[in-house]
Design a protein that fits this description.
430 residues, alpha/beta, 5-stranded mixed sheet, 47% helix, Rossmann fold
Length: 430
């Protein structure tokens, strides 16, 4: 299953020589990342690249998941990187409705919207009344994330009132005060390496545990990540999609295209797009450079899902301002194929009676229209939506983001501005 996702830069609006020349400028940092991975340097902020080859967290997650293998409902309480990675993988592999159709059923509590939380509680109470096992996986690196602590308190206390078997697994930074408190409360715990940021944590216990419990083949996921890492650390820039992707975005931003539009042609990939959006926004949206110069720079990510958003965004993309660089992602084999005719079928071309063929033709049409309008785009072509492909894509994207930030002289691993709203909210809640 090697090279399950193929990246194509032939439509990126930059000549291959110029693209490779820019990519080669990242060679030194590529080697630095390779050294971090080889030395297993957990003190380096880029240490998430160690995770694809680190089996310790995989074994911990698998072992603990076996203990809760009979649970019928898994509620993941987290926000941002603490749950987007798991959500992205689960939806991509299982489909847009997999969380409701799977056993266990999986719900993500990632907002303080009372209506959303009340519905999660209602579903949880139904499971409790039926005598089913419920597991709440609270994930917070700091242990002080307002949304996560608030949601957990509401969900846990309400479900406890209903009775039934309710267990908790807490996932947080190793050695944290939060984990110690959870142990004292009698909860199971899993740790995340301190230097692994939330948006880079999907291949740690933050992602591996809920995904394993949900039935995802996390061994294959890590194998795909390992393939993506091998590609991203290649010295041969012609075979390094991460360096080429970073170069594409960097060179297009220099041309004034500071919007990166993710256009994923599968509803199953929407959460993967949300994860990609966070990764780019937090990693390169910065007030200052590494040297302290104030620049207020950012590449703004947009997310569209094909074919749905062609009927809301295509007009803007094809006729609006030329300020965007695109990533088009498509799937060769969806794993589902239907054909059928009705008395109304004559209103569309004959071959449109197959959604798969219609999707293929529409994607080709979009690509052709983009070329004619000279819109710059890269492509991520998935052979299928399976664990290996998704793992490969995510690891390439993480490495690409690190390389892009390095090209821009930015810190890819912090997000100090996020604390501004947290500080104000904390003050108001005291």
């Amino acid at each position: 299953m090697k090279n399950c996702v193929k990246f194509d830069f032939s439509g990126c609006g930059i000549g291959s020589k110029a693209l490779l020349a820019q990519a080669k400028k990242s060679s030194k940092y590529v080697q630095e990342l390779a050294s971090v991975a080889k030395a297993c340097d957990w003190s380096n902020p880029a240490c998430s690249i160690i995770l694809p080859n680190e089996r310790k967290f995989f074994k911990q997650s698998v072992s603990l998941a076996q203990k809760f293998s009979h649970c019928s409902l898994l509620i993941v309480v987290g926000i941002g990187g603490s749950n987007l990675g798991a959500m992205a993988v689960l939806q991509a592999i299982g489909g847009p409705y997999s969380r409701l159709l799977s056993t266990p059923q999986v719900l993500f509590a990632d907002t303080c919207d009372p209506r959303s939380i009340s519905q999660i509680i209602a579903i949880g109470k139904k499971h409790a009344r039926e005598g089913n096992e419920i597991l709440i996986n609270i994930i917070t690196k700091s242990g002080r994330t307002i949304e996560t602590i608030s949601n957990f308190g509401a969900i846990y206390s309400e479900l406890k009132k209903e009775g039934g078997k309710i267990s908790v697994v807490a996932t947080s930074d190793e050695g944290s005060e939060f984990l110690r408190a959870c142990v004292e409360e009698g909860h199971e715990t899993l740790s995340i390496p301190k230097k692994v940021g939330g948006r880079f944590s999907v291949f740690s216990n933050a992602g591996l545990f809920p995904l394993t419990l949900a039935g995802v083949d996390t061994s294959s996921l890590l194998a795909g990540a390992k393939e993506g890492l091998s590609q991203s650390l290649s010295k041969n820039m012609k075979k390094n999609p991460a360096a080429q992707m970073a170069s594409f975005l960097h060179l297009q931003s220099m041309k004034g295209k500071n919007i990166h539009a993710f256009f994923f042609f599968s509803n199953s990939m929407r959460a993967l797009g949300l994860w990609s959006r966070q990764l780019l926004a937090e990693s390169v949206g910065k007030e200052r450079t590494l040297s302290g110069k104030k620049i207020n720079f950012g590449i703004t990510p947009m997310l569209s899902t094909g074919t749905t958003d062609l009927h809301s965004m295509a007009q803007l993309y094809l006729a609006g301002p030329a300020d965007k660089a695109f990533l088009l992602a498509n799937v060769k084999n969806f794993g589902a194929h239907f054909e059928g005719a009705s008395p109304l079928s004559h209103f569309a071309p004959k071959k449109a009676n197959s959604p798969a063929r219609a999707m293929e033709a529409i994607y080709a049409g979009v690509r052709s229209a983009f070329k004619k309008e000279k819109l710059p785009f890269a492509q991520a072509q998935f052979s299928g939506l399976n664990e290996f492909c998704v793992g490969q894509y995510m690891q390439v994207q993480m490495c690409s983001t690190m390389l892009l930030a390095n090209m821009l002289n930015l810190n890819a691993f912090d997000q100090p501005a996020v604390e501004k709203y947290k500080t104000e909210a904390m003050r108001l809640l005291k």
